[in-house]
């Protein structure tokens, strides 16, 4: 039987060492480990320090754990926005972040462009407490260019800049002097079972949450930022967390550190380049995102038009599972995750198969 | 080497089939499964239906998944309490539920008794929207008698009754006509890795949340009750959940159904009886909870006084790991979980060892 390669953009293919780490975790009693034990604290510390090294997070940023990136959307609004946030919306996930702000009764605003389009640089940002950016819009494969992300803080040094990096990390290299908070979940670029989010914040975020609390505003309970931070300083969590998830993340990060982030980035670039080239040169397929400056390297969306179902069946018959198009694009797009779990050889097989596809 | 038996009250010893289910999950690609797939929906359905059967949950109750029971504390206050809840507090965990209500700026009240003590039946309950009960106070081993739980609804039919059953389910048999919402997490009685909570609600809870929302009160975002419920009807979750956790819970529930809830309850009673008897008859040890009507069957706390450290070391030398006393009782108590994962033979070994303990 052909091996099944999973190119869905999340939950995605497991990192190739994930299962071995899971087996060792059971052998070592990790699932029964108390989250108040020294062993747990050392697992927590290893995971946090490994992430800081892998992604290049400066010392004055704090990492805490949530149950998902979806939770982080809610916690960011609760803890960092008293009245208003401003959201750059170009697809389903950036829109969801905006909608969560409305559900929490904030007077938030959005700047929306059509799916697949770029945001123009603007010098007319509204007065707001926080600007929310989605680095990689998983629904369409649009990635915000780093100069655009950095331009926000350059124009509005007083505003908090929040970046959703759910389906891009560990690939991108952020300038941490230009952002205040960043977050992701582990079932995409880190190739792990879902059920864990990572929330990275600087001191300005902590100060904002503390000052809102001092003003009598509720910032949530067990997962408010000061509580998460205070426990994090002790390498602990407020609640019994997904201990196994934190353990597995730490182990996969160690594997990625051994492989080297430069290698991971170089391979991601290579795999993206061959897939985009195959789509551009194909007689009936094309990239959905045509503007090269905003083409995502980690979620590559093919506009397959009337051949969508046929290409999907053809790839699946070869053991290659693409992600469906998102929402309205279900019958028109296929999405391909390009994560560290996908080897060069697997991508070459995918690209060869797409090139050979004759409808 | 001696086998290590874990009697800590959570995360506790894994259910004896958990590791096999985890291996099968990896073989079957569960960790990479889309939470929008038919396969996921059938896993969700199997878990929910299995739980309803195991615990005897009536049809008009809905089960939804959160990341922890701690999250459920927050969601109950957000969704079911506009102004005030009333909390029966007799230890650290019932107190934490009360404190979460205060953190969410509710004008909540509490009725507090000392650790290890019973609540008197009272006909003077305050005017409130919700009464919060902790069936099993994990910190001290006090369990509320069913007649006490049922008396709340009998006195105040209009109030919502919320029951924390974190460290007691699946053992207890609740009268669902006397409670409106019930919750637990999987790392205790179900013997699974932490990172999943189960929240059970009736229609009155849904109506309350919907009416608060209609009145412009924020009830949270992705995990507000109407959103959880609407996704639950499709056997889905609003966010990418802990898919593996939901899968494992479903599988362990099937194992428990095959074993039979009556057998599980009978064995729990037997194991509790022999441990309490050993503590009562021991020359230097005694049960912390002396009132038999409130002695927990699932978390049994030994008052070991000055011999705490010595007994703990002695048991550990035999591969039997007790839980430490909680908080102020750390140097005075040892706690023993009595969950379905602990076999009769393991409990007999524990009891024999305690009886043989001569300080």
Report on the architecture of this protein.
The structure is a homodimer of 359-residue chains. By secondary structure, chain A is of the alpha/beta class. The first copy, chain A, has two domains: 5-13 and 260-356, Aspartate Aminotransferase, domain 1 (Alpha-Beta Complex); 18-258, Type I PLP-dependent aspartate aminotransferase-like (Major domain) (Aspartate Aminotransferase, domain 2), CATH 3.40.640.10. The first copy, chain A, is built from eleven helices and 14 strands. In chain A, the strands form three sheets. Chain A has a seven-stranded mixed sheet with strand order 2-10-9-8-5-3-4, sandwiched between helices. In chain A, a hairpin with a 4-residue loop joins strand 6 (136-137) and strand 7 (142-143). Chain A is globular and about 65 Å long. Chains A and B meet through helix 1, helix 3, helix 4 and helix 8 of A and helix 1, helix 3, helix 4 and helix 8 of B.
Q: Which spans of chain A have pLDDT < 50 for at least 5 consecutive residues?
A: none
Our Rg estimate of chain A from Cα atoms comes to 20 Å
Instruction: Give the CA-based shape of chain A.
Output: globular
Most residues in contact, chain pair and counts: A-B, 53 and 53 residues
Enumerate how many helices of chain A there are, as a single number.
11
CATH topology group of the largest domain in chain A: Aspartate Aminotransferase, domain 2
What is the overall pLDDT average of chain A? 96
What is the percent of helical residues of chain A?
40-55%
Q: Helix/strand-derived class of chain A?
A: alpha/beta
- Trace the largest sheet of chain A across and list its strands: 2-10-9-8-5-3-4
* H-E order of chain A: EHHEHEHEEEEHEEEHHHHEEHEEH
Largest pleated sheet of chain A: 7 strands, mixed
- CATH architectural category of the largest domain in chain A: 3-Layer(aba) Sandwich
CATH superfamily of the largest domain in chain A: Type I PLP-dependent aspartate aminotransferase-like (Major domain)
């Amino acid at each position: 039987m052909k091996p099944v390669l999973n190119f869905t953009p999340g939950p995605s293919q497991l990192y190739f060492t994930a299962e071995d780490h899971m087996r060792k975790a059971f052998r070592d009693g990790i699932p029964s480990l108390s989250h108040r034990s020294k062993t747990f604290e050392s697992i927590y510390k290893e995971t946090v320090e490994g992430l800081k090294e892998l992604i290049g997070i400066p010392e004055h940023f704090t990492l805490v754990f949530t149950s998902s990136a979806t939770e982080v959307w809610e916690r960011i609004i609760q803890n960092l926005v008293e009245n208003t946030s401003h959201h750059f919306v170009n697809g389903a996930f950036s829109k969801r972040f905006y909608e969560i702000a409305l559900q929490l009764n904030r007077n938030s605003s959005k700047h929306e462009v059509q799916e697949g389009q770029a945001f123009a640089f603007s010098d007319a940002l509204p007065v707001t407490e926080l600007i929310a950016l989605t680095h990689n819009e998983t629904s369409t494969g649009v990635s915000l260019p780093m100069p655009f992300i950095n331009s926000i803080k350059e124009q509005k040094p007083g505003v908090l800049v929040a970046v959703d990096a759910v389906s891009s990390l560990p690939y991108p290299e952020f300038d941490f002097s230009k952002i205040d908070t960043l977050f992701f979940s582990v079932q995409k670029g880190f190739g792990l079972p879902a059920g864990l989010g990572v929330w990275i914040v600087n001191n300005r975020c902590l100060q904002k949450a503390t000052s809102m609390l001092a003003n009598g505003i509720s910032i949530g309970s067990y997962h408010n930022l000061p509580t998460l931070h205070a426990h994090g300083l002790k390498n602990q969590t407020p609640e019994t967390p997904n201990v196994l998830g934190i353990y597995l993340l730490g182990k996969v990060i160690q594997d990625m550190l051994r492989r080297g982030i430069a290698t991971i980035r170089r391979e991601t670039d290579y795999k993206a380049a061959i897939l985009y080239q195959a789509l551009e040169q194909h007689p009936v397929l094309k990239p959905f995102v045509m503007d090269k400056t905003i083409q995502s390297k980690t979620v590559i969306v093919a506009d397959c038009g009337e051949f969508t179902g046929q290409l999907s069946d053809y790839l699946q018959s070869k053991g290659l599972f693409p992600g469906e198009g998102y929402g309205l694009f279900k019958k028109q797009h296929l999405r391909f995750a390009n994560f560290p779990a996908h080897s060069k050889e697997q991508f070459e097989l995918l690209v060869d198969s797409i090139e050979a596809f004759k409808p």
